[in-house]
Amino acid sequence: MAEKESVQDTHNYYVDIPMNSEIFQLRGSNALEWGFKNRLSNIFHPATGRTVMLAIDHGYFLGPTAGLERVDLTIVPLLPHADTLMCTRGILRSTIPPTFTKGIVLRSSGGPSILKELSDEEIAVDVEDAIRLNVAAMAVQVFIGGEHETKSVHNMTRLVDVGNRYGIPVLGVTAVGKDMVRDAKYMRLATRICAELGAAYVKTYYVDEEFDTVTASCPVPIVIAGGKKLPELDALKMAGSAVQQGAAGVDMGRNIFQSEAPAAMIQAVRKVVHDNATPEEAYDVYQTLRNKSK
Ligand code: 5RP
């Protein structure tokens, strides 16, 4: 056992070195508490402030979507390449190994299936269960301009209130109705409403014109959904343009798990998001990895 006096003699207070008081790198997040920042750091990679979220929550209204019929076989092998997984609690409990220690973004709204009016959602998770599952964030669909717009906004604000109580960020997912124009004007409106009403970050769709005005006018980080399956190079171009215009990454599903080579594709997406690779450089990576896996 060390002698009391000799232990005290070893103290070094580094009086000439100012204490490090880093500014938290995520846009609009400085005023958040430690638990929020810690959870967000489990979504956005601390080295780049960006994220490759793997979105596999489609089944909550679509059932067994192509590529997600057997999550154990098609998605679990991709997990080492994702910064975060976005999924439902059903898939999480039944299929995702609890040894996955990166962030889980929990699908927390739902109700109607693809056969019904989609904007008619309710909150679908109790915050206690989200805590039990140790999630990094809760995701809720917001239907700006939709038939049940106010209800879906209210779902988000209620989740923000309970999330704030426990330090759990809420991801506002802008859902564009099939009859709505997907342009920058709409995306500015929808993303800004989510941020103003408390979302810690917002998911939206990339638009070809003026996407930089969408990221500029949203005071919290934006990630883009991938949308319908595109040829791999086009999907990489979309991800690259989004991050170069201020997006903090992607929340991509079909363009990864419906790719001919999902593991190669997610690694190529990482190149664009985290290493600022050009889409063409990332596509080379995709092709090389795809060919190796054949
Ligand atoms: C479903 C979602 C999906 O997670 C989102 O659309 C991302 O997936 P994809 O890249 O396939 O569009 O929120 O409502």
Could you explain the architecture of this structure?
The chain is globular. The protein is built from 13 helices and 10 strands. With 294 residues, the protein is α/β, with parallel strands linked by helices. The strands form 2 sheets. The chain has an 8-stranded parallel β-barrel, surrounded by 6 helices. A two-stranded antiparallel sheet has the order 4-5. The chain starts with a helix and ends with a helix. 40% of the residues lie in helices and 14% in strands. Helix 10 runs parallel beside helix 12. It has a single domain, classed as Alpha-Beta Barrel (TIM Barrel), CATH 3.20.20. Strand 2, helix 5 and strand 3 form a beta-alpha-beta unit. It binds ribulose-5-phosphate (5RP).
Instruction: Supply Rg.
Output: 20 Å
User: Approximately what portion of the residues adopt beta-strand conformation?
Assistant: 5-15%
Low-confidence stretches: none
CA-based shape: globular
* Strands ordered across the widest β-sheet: 1-2-3-6-7-8-9-10
Biggest sheet descriptor: 8 strands, parallel, barrel
Overall helicity = 40-55%
- For the terminal residues, how far apart are their CA atoms? 60 Å
The number of distinct structural domains comes to 1
SS summary, helix count = 13
